[in-house]
Amino acid sequence: YFRVYKKGVKKGNEPAKFIYFGIFEGKPVPLARLHEISDYAMNNRQDLILAVVDRQMDITYYNVKKQEI
Q1: Residue 45 lies in a domain
Q2: Rounded to 5 degrees, what angle do the CA atoms 32, 53, 56 make?
Q3: In this structure, are residues 23 and 50 in contact, taking their beta carbons and an 8 Å threshold?
Q4: b/e string for 26-44 if b means 16 or more Cβ within 10 A?
Q5: Is residue 69 part of a domain?
Q6: SS3 of residue 3 by DSSP
Q7: What digits encode the pLDDT tens for the residues 17-41?
Q8: Domain holding 10: CATH number?
Q9: Residue range of the domain that includes 12
Q10: What span, in angstroms and rounded, lies between the C-alpha atoms of 35 and 16?
Q11: C-beta atoms surrounding 19 within 10 Å
């Protein structure tokens, strides 16, 4: 994964706004890994964005929100 900061923010002065986690379509990702990344983002008050790369190398972005039931 990688972090994305707001425009104009210098690393270290403010936390990143987003965490992007890239995955390839058709390649399994363990739910435990997604849960780990989601918890990390939530604990650091960052938005988690899944970047799914398909077979044509197109990227679709999904904003992930965690629901407590």
Answers
A1: yes
A2: 150
A3: yes
A4: eeeeeeeeeeebbeebeee
A5: no
A6: strand
A7: 889 999 999 999 999 998 899 999 9
A8: 3.40.1350.150
A9: 2-64
A10: 19
A11: 21
